[in-house]
Amino acid sequence: MIVSLTIVRYKKWQTFFALLAMAIHRIPMSLQKGCTFWKLLGTGRNGQMSLKPDWQQWSILAVWDSENDFQAFYNHSFIASWWQLFGVERWTILCEPLQSHGKWNGKEPFGSAVMKGYEGPIVVLTRATVKYSKFRQFWSSVKTVQSQLYVAKGFIMSVGIGELYSLPATFSIWNNLEDMKAYAMPVANTQM
Question: CATH number of the domain at 122-190, out of 3.30.70.100, 3.40.50.360, 3.30.70.120, 3.30.2380.10?
Answer without folding.
Answer: 3.30.70.100
